[in-house]
Amino acid sequence: MVASMVGCPLFPAGTAQGLTCRTNIPQSTPTDRFEIRNEGKTVVDTKTALEWQRCGLDSTFGNNGTPDQYDDDYCYYQKVGWQVALQRVEAINTPLDQVTPSGLSGKGGYAGFTDWRVPNTKELSSITERTCFRPSVNWPVFPGTPSNHFWSSSSNVDSPHYAEVIDFALGQFTNDDKRFDADYVRLVRDAQ
Question: What total of structural domains would you count in the chain?
Answer without folding.
Answer: 1
